[in-house]
Amino acid sequence: MQDFTIRPMRAEELDDIASLISWGYYDDIFFKWVVESDEDRHPIVTDYYKVYLGAKGSVVNVVERADGEIMGASVWLPHDVDTKIYDDIDAVAGIYAKNFRAVADWSHLSEPPMKPFYQLVGFVINEQAKGAGLGVKLLGHNLDMFDNMGIPTYLEASTPYHGGGVYGKFGYQPVGELMHFSDTAVLYPLWRPAQKKKVVRFGGYSWYVLEGYGKYLFLLSEKVIEHGKYHDVFEEIFHSKASVHKYLNNEFFNRFKPEEREQIRSDKISLLDVEEVIKYFGDSGRRWHPETNFYIDDIYNNARKATMLDGSPSRWFLDDLGSMKNMVAVVTVDGRICLSGDFVNRESTELFNVGIRPAMWVKKEAVSE
Predict the structure, then answer these.
(1) What residues have CB less than 8 Å from 341, skipping those under 6 apart?
(2) N or C: which end of the chain has fewer CB within 10 A?
(3) Do 286 and 292 form a contact (C-beta atoms < 8 A)?
């Protein structure tokens, strides 16, 4: 299977993504009821999704193949999305506006009273890519982001739900009554509470499980383990030569018992870089926004916050240089990613905590829950 990347939709891709989703739903029983005409269905549903994709607060992620082709997309809306979008949908739906409005009205009646939440309103994988597990990866990527924010999710499946399939795999459960629009057009409301990131124990510390590969898990310390410098001297430094790497793979590594050290993969212990923080804690697309020169400040701030072992708030170093080679990127106490950076030899003080949050690959068999 080719390599695939999951990333936020770019603004210039809106029309193409709306068309891709529309083609994905072209033969869907529910959308055949909404837009009965085969000739009208694709252009009408495309314009419908253009409204959703452009809505304030929407979260849109795409699956991109290594050659740059978009193979799938997901669209999520916040529960409190501006209701003006339904007027916009009326305008583009034309003679089918009544059906679209009926769906929106019933959806609002069916959605759970718990707030806030995000609703999945579009989820398509290209026919060419089906069977490769991309639907599971895309849904998991989105749910990880919402879980990190503590936000539950809701959706209305257009195929019968019996507790299995991709939605069952991620813990969705039926909620409320089925939505019958015709004998064939039925929606199945499903709800999933936010789930905490999995935490395991290893070597006397608690660790978040960021991902698994083969017999290994990629772990990040749940807490900032201690205050410390990124580098001992205020100088221009290539990040792999920073003092923190020597510390992690000598003094810190040797804190583990001999049998524990054998369970750590040979590339040993590191820090997350900016791209890894974005990958594992949520990607709003701000990284490549032209105005993002100093901070990534977005809806995932809370997920990136960290504390010391004693519960006190703390900044944590990332393994990327800042705007100059004597600066290093950090995550601030309020969860922003400071791209411009702080001094590589910054010391912690009573008023300015900054420290080290190790990451490493460890054999699955070595961790406990």
Answers:
(1) 321, 322, 323, 324, 327, 328, 329, 330
(2) C
(3) yes
